[in-house]
Amino acid sequence: MNLPNMKEAKIRTNNKVEHINLENNIPNSFEGKKYFLRTYGCQMNVHDSEQIRKYLEEFGFTVTEELTEADIVVLNTCAIRENAHDKVFGFLGRCKHLKREKPELIIAIGGCMSQEESVANEIKTKHSYVDIVFGTHNIHELPNMILEANKKLNINVYSYEGNVYENVKYSRDSKITAWVNIMYGCDKFCTYCIVPFTRGKQRSRKMENILDEVRELKALGYQEVTLLGQNVNAYGKDLDESYDFSTLLENVAKIGIPRVRFVTSHPWDFTDEMISLIAKYENIMPYVHLPLQSGSDRILKLMGRRYTKKEYLTLFNKIKEKIPNVAVTTDIIVGFPNETEEDFLETLDIVNKCRYDSAFTFIYSPREGTPASKIKDEITYSEKESRLQRLNEVINKYSLENNYKYVGKIEKVLLLGKSEKDNSKLYGYTETMKLVNVITNKDNIGKIIAVKITDAKSFSLDGKAI
Ligand code: 5AD
Ligand code: SF4
User: Fold this and answer.
1) Long-range CB contacts (< 8 A, 24+ apart) of 121-126?
2) pTM over 0.85
3) Domain limits, the chain
4) Probe ligand 2: pick from 42, 115, 228, 230, max atoms within 8 Å of CB?
5) Which of 23, 184, 16 is nearest to 115 (CA)?
6) C-alpha span between 344 and 359 (Å, rounded)
7) What is the pLDDT of residues 213-224, one digit of tens each?
8) How many C-beta neighbours within 10 Å does residue 320 have?
């Protein structure tokens, strides 16, 4: 994929990845000013925004939820599906108006969308009131770009993967649960997916640095860490080291933080050793997100997923058998180009066999530059919508069925805060990642407590502290 910063790109394409310690010398030059930060997309983006926020706060900016009050607006964008693009450009329209009234307003766009050549071009030609476009590989350069802002549009996006940066500081959303990046990028190149282009090839952090971060989080009192990567099971394969994800997971578990989770797993790289570890360690949570994408072998092959329906089922059954009370969730795409009714029925069939705890379901969205986007598609959008609806009905039925199994049981719940729907309750998660609204004392925020489950809905449970 060609990107705007071609001068640098030419010199450094296919760079050898270096592991570099960042220095953080940010002047307090925006004291009294306000920032508005909006994040679209996946957990990776949510965590990147914690790094962006740290920079903004070190500059002296304080947060505002009111766009009109902002002195800087940062949009951390997502490119995984088309609608993400429309949302961002819709929002940019509001920023444009605001900048007319307040010319010193700084507008910055980062995240996966800014890695797309067509988007950078669109900003250059139609939205030159934007000040900064930064990419997913150079978030650490945002502070300098902010210092130089308001002169002219500054697009600084690497077309190569960038390095692995250590000593990254975060302003974390929570004091209870924390994300920990273990790797960046993805080498799987599923044919529909833009991530390998926007986030680059796989680069793992060194294990000792990850363990240091987890130790630090434990010392700060964190109750839970989630190891984060596009395909965590492939962790370490790009390093000249003898360790792999199982080694890392076991070492993280041994640090003794109460809860350890990881997302996302590609079925192809899921090893028996990982299953044994999840079963063995009490603090590795019995929850696996195992994206299926499709139940049809023909579509799986076209998607480049590297497994068949039968192989997926074998792995799924092994996970269910070996890990007591495990919950498994998934991602499914309907309407991949030329998906037939028979292909779709194969997806419904595997869903009926796996009876997932829950699933994220999507209509296929063609992404420019991906191999699948070049396939001429004969299926109408309304047919795709109808398949999504049929799929969701089945998924929701099993979610509810699985949730009902919890009623009457006692579950360990990590309480995170006040319940959004009912302020008199707290919300938290079971070990299996079920959302629970709990009647309990407010002082229990941040604690893992025993909860008796009293009722179940498709997307949450109700419970009472005991
Ligand atoms: N269209 C629709 N869904 C997609 N996903 C990834 N790329 C696309 C696309 N082009 C879904 C996959 C993935 C999840 C994060 O997003 O299901 O697992
Ligand atoms: Fe995309 Fe496939 Fe990588 Fe997941 S494993 S990020 S779907 S290319």
Assistant:
1) 121/4, 122/89, 123/153, 123/155, 124/4, 124/153, 124/155
2) yes
3) 7-156, 175-404, 410-465
4) 230
5) 184
6) 16
7) 999 999 999 999
8) 17
pLDDT digit string, tens, across residues 134-143: 999 999 999 9
How is residue 290 written in tokens? Answer: 């195992």
Cα-Cα-Cα-Cα dihedral sign, residues 143, 146, 152, 154 = positive
Written as one letter, the residue type at 296 is S
Residue 117: per-residue pLDDT: 87
- Cβ of 364 below 6 Å from ligand 1: yes
CATH class assigned to 175-404: alpha beta
Assign domain 410-465 to its CATH superfamily.
Answer: Nucleic acid-binding proteins (2.40.50.140)
Please give the number of the atom of ligand 2 that sits closest to the Cα of 193.
Answer: 1
3-state secondary structure of 66: coil
Amino acid, res. 143: P
Q: Hey, what amino acid is at 386? A: S
Minimum-distance ligand 2 atom for the alpha carbon of 331: 7
* Omega prior to 77 cis, within 30 of 0: no
- Architecture per CATH, domain 7-156, reads as 3-Layer(aba) Sandwich (3.40)
